[in-house]
Amino acid sequence: MFFLESRSALTSFYLGLFGIPSLLMLCLRPREIKTLLGEPIIAGFLALCIWLCLSLLWSPPENPDFGMMKIPLQPLMLFAGCAMLLQYRSEALKPLMFCAAIIALVATISYLVPFIKNYAPNQRMIGGGAFTNPLLSSHLFGFFCIYWLCLCISSQRLSTLWFSVPAMAVMLVAVLATGSRTPLVAIALSIVWLSIVSRNRRALAMIAGMLLGSAVVLLLFPEMLGDRGSSHRLQIWQIALERIAEHPWIGHGYDSELRIDVGMGSPFVEPHSFSLGVLYYIGIIGMIPWAFVLVWGLLSSYRQRLQPLFVLASTLLVYGIGAGLAEGGAVLTRPREHWFLLWIPLALIAALNIVNRRGQLAKTRQTQT
């Protein structure tokens, strides 16, 4: 997304390099399907996809777009691909993520430098590539900020620590430059989660630093959190809840349209909350597998908290949950920023669970990066 020109190009890029190869691997190795379905996260996600497709039957349009049934297949291949990657090339995960973080860091610096040079009051950084909205951009900046944060806490290599701290600072500055507040809440939740699963002095130092940094920011820039008020969130949520109450159990359907008018001129098309979006489109029944995969992901990661990859993946998931408290609303989409909040972390956790049950994941404490 840092270099592609559009989301459609991102979809083509994903399908060509990951989605379709994963599907071909499943066709060539059908026995892997049984392994995948044995993982509760993947089984729960599959149940979510099935219910989502069934909801097309009661979607408002007279002629439902059954072509939308292809969309859940794309994140499903993400789960399958990650699982097979870790089963057969588990040693490749860390280098891949590190390379991705380096690329994101270089791209972010290229966005930040001109933004800082030409900064004007109330200006918000968006970035280049396929980024079109500062809030959506902040999801990726925050994702990689959490990655570097995990290295800061877990790494005992001095060289890695010296590199990770400034890298994390750059990504945090990028999040602040977007002017988005929800990612800051998500980062705070991630630090709390890290303090729970890590329980070392460095984690405590990070919490102290977070509190001190927050106090300094509020003292120097008190308008940062208050100028835009609640951004109409309370009104949006109230109207969304009223719509949800119309069909609380089964929802309005995957193909339904949401229009929330709060007097801004143009209506909002999302309830600005992942959970409210799930309830609106697929109801309480659809909410059950959605909530299950999140809870199971965190629970299974906590049980394996001595393994650094589980700590990283679960912290990314906590960040995504925090970021989705007041943003988003689509249940399943084609590849876009929201994938970095829930589906990529969950796919990593599911893959790690499968590999760990097979005894292929080294049971080492957090002494490596």
From TrEMBL:
Alphabetized UniProt keyword annotations: Ligase, Membrane, Transmembrane, Transmembrane helix
Give the highest taxon in the source lineage: Bacteria
Which InterPro entries does this UniProt record tie to the protein? O-antigen_ligase-rel_domated (IPR007016), WaaL-like (IPR051533)
Q: Which residues form the signal peptide?
A: none
This entry's Gene Ontology molecular function terms read: ligase activity
Keyword Transport listed: no
| Bilayer-spanning residue ranges | 12-28, 40-59, 71-88, 95-116, 136-153, 160-177, 183-198, 203-221, 278-299, 306-326, 338-355
Question: Could you name the Gene Ontology cellular component terms for this entry?
Answer: membrane
State where the protein is found: Membrane
Q: How does it sit in the membrane?
A: Multi-pass membrane protein
* Location of the O-antigen ligase-related domain: 167-290
- Pfam families for this protein: Wzy_C
Name of this chain's protein:
Oligosaccharide repeat unit polymerase, O-antigen ligase
The record lists the organism as: Pseudomonas batumici
